[in-house]
Amino acid sequence: MLAGRQLPWFPGIVLAALVFTAAFAAYLAPQSPTEGDISRKLITPVWMERGTWEHPLGTDRFGRDVLSRIIYGSRISLAVSLVAIGVAGTVGTGLGLLAGYRGGFTDAFLMRLTDIGLSLPIVLIAVVLVAVSEPSFGNVILVISLLLWPRFARQMRGETLAIKQQDFVALAVVAGRSSWWIMSRHIFPNLVPTLLVITTLQVGYVILLEGTLSFLGVGVPPPNPAWGLMIADGRGFLATAWWISLFPGLAMLLIVLAVNLMGDWLRDHLDPKLRQLGIRAPLLDAPGIEPVGHAAGEAPARGASGGGDGG
Amino acid sequence: MLVVEDLKTYFYTRRGITKAVDGVSFTLEAGETLALVGESGSGKSVTCLSLVRLVPEPAGRIVGGRVLFQGEDLLEKSPAQMRHVRGKQIAMVLQDPMTSLNPALTIGSQVSEVVRLHQGLRGSTLRERVLDALSRLRIPGAETRLRTYQHQLSGGMRQRVSSAIAMSCEPRLLIADEPTTALDVTIQAQYLELLKEVQRSTGVAVILVTHDFGIVAAHADRVAVMYAGRIVEMGSTLQVFDNPGHPYTRALLRCLPDVELTRHELVEIGGQPPDLARLPPGCPFAPRCPERQPICDEAYPPSVPLGSGHAAHCWVAAGAHA
Questions:
Q1: Would the pLDDT of B189 be above 80?
Q2: How much is the pLDDT for B264?
Q3: Looking at CA atoms only, how far is residue A192 from chain B in angstroms?
Q4: Residue A285: is its pLDDT beyond 70?
Q5: Span A75-310: which CATH code?
Q6: CB contact under 8 A, B113 and A185
Q7: Does ipTM surpass 0.90 in this model?
Q8: Residue A273 confidence (pLDDT)
Q9: Fewer Cβ in 10 A, N or C end of chain B?
Q10: At A89, is the pLDDT very low, low, confident or very high (cuts 50, 70, 90)?
Q11: Which of B2, B27, B1, B22 is nearest to B10 (CA)?
Q12: Which of A168, A192, A272 comes nearest B101 by C-beta?
């Protein structure tokens, strides 16, 4: 099948660039991301009349270099998504696997818990958390994990239910294996392809969510160069200094697009059943999973396009 | 070695109680092969699942009887004790080779998992035993197969690997639930021959579930014919084939194509198997039975001895031998 050989060049390159940028931010960024020269504030990007190569994408209202802040900001986006997804993925997969395998009361209890989790008003929780404590990375991770784990739990439970029906699980029971062993060694490896797909699709969502929270002032605390914070920073200058908001918005758009394309590609290629049949079935179109990265991504997307409108 | 007494497994459904297994009794000696024969839904598979207590709960439940395995009642064991028995003493081979191996693990790791668990071996001795187990079931190129996944193997090869896994813990009892249904005919014969060979060398007792009388004739020592959750006739293979005591058995045997007799049309058994949730009070086969008597609709027939170890539940046989 020819389509099977088509590699996802665009998302691959974008994501590799993201990881590279985040890893070597200190070498790539021309200026400090947090220290600014107030006398050099609101410098335009290089191709405009007041522009200079010292600040290729201009400076913000404190004279901080926008490009450097975007470069360092990639670290925040990446770190937040990795940690939050790590936490939520581990908890969600564990509980989903347990619920699906055990069934009965355990299943009912855990699934009601995920229902509750899925109905939490997450932005409100973030606001409350910030009201009772300071904005911090810990809070961001906590809030995002709280939102994400039920998605993992649901999907993994469903997969587990399907895998549990297969004979090799019954045979492992007959072979005298413990439930723990069967779950970790016989079921979990079969969850990995799906897990990889959901994880990828969640990365885009988390980046947008972190952007939203930071934009609202309940996410990553300033002066960290989070993209959402930068968009919020430039909000007051959209008419005059649009570049402050536009470029972080574009960065976010690019990454999220790349991540979602990658997720789609993985989805189409990792399911051996689909691969054999040559079908591209929407694996994750189950209710509750579908809105990932689309509907929920509206708020920061507006922030980004707001920047674009100004220019 | 295995004594099953009055085993009852019911399924509790919205439509009522389905008596999937209703008072099944049989015995099995070491090295012996007992064939469970019957139509789909006659309770063969549920009987097997009940023996290892894998009846799908909570819908299904073993509601009565005893399963004495080497003198101990399996139905009274705790889950932990049961795990021990299952792993060491009882093994299973199932019908569908497509799902009986884990697609995410290599063949090698699946076989060695069992060998390691049961014999506590490691390193090169473990590897030797694994290769041993595979080559005992005549899996060619066992060495290279270790690193392959199930999707790289044919159906027959997968079934052999499943059997190698089942046999590698040297069980006393092997439950083979239609092991050849998914294989084509030439592979079937080959596979069953292998199974017989392994059985001869290890003395394992086999419960062979099948609906193929050809397989029964060639491989079973004794036969239990099941209908509607009960054993309606049991005896040695010879006895049952030569002198079938139950009209259902006779009907099943008539369904076989016959090479010697020039009979061109295959006979079928008319009607449908009964609804297990609404069994009639009498013999469940009565509505389809060509030899039906008035009494057949009134009470379940008693066991009628037809020779040493040969018996059938049938009013007609009772009348004939009374």
A1: yes
A2: 58
A3: 9
A4: no
A5: 1.10.3720.10
A6: yes
A7: no
A8: 54
A9: C
A10: very high
A11: B22
A12: A168
pLDDT digits (tens, 9 = 90+) for A90-116: 999 999 999 999 988 999 999 999 999
pLDDT > 90: percent of chain A: 27
Cα-based torsion angle of the residue sequence B41, B45, B50, B52 in order, rounded to the nearest 10 degrees: -170
Spell out which residues of chain B touch residue A186, defining contact as CB-CB under 8 Å. Answer: 102, 105
Predicted confidence (pLDDT) per residue in B163-176, tens digit: 888 888 788 999 99
Interatomic CA distance for residues B111 and B129, integer angstroms: 9
Name every chain A residue with its beta carbon within 8 A of the beta carbon of B113: 185
Entry pTM: 0.77
Contacts A189 to B, Cβ<8 Å = 102, 104-105
**What does the domain layout of chain A look like in residue ranges?**
75-310
- Identify the structural domains of chain B with CATH numbers, from first to last: 2-95+175-321 (3.40.50.300)
Residues in B whose CB is inside 8 Å of some CB of A read 52, 54, 58, 83-88, 90-92, 94-96, 99-105, 113-114, 117, 151, 162, 165-166, 169
- Express each pLDDT in B80-114 by its tens digit: 888 888 877 888 888 888 888 888 889 888 888 88
* Cβ within 8 Å, pair B165-A174: no
Write out chain A residues lying below 8 Å of B177, CB-based. Answer: none
Residues B6, B23 contacting (CB under 8 angstroms) = yes
With CB atoms and an 8 Å threshold, state whether B54 touches A186. no
Across the strands, what pairs with B176? B93, B208
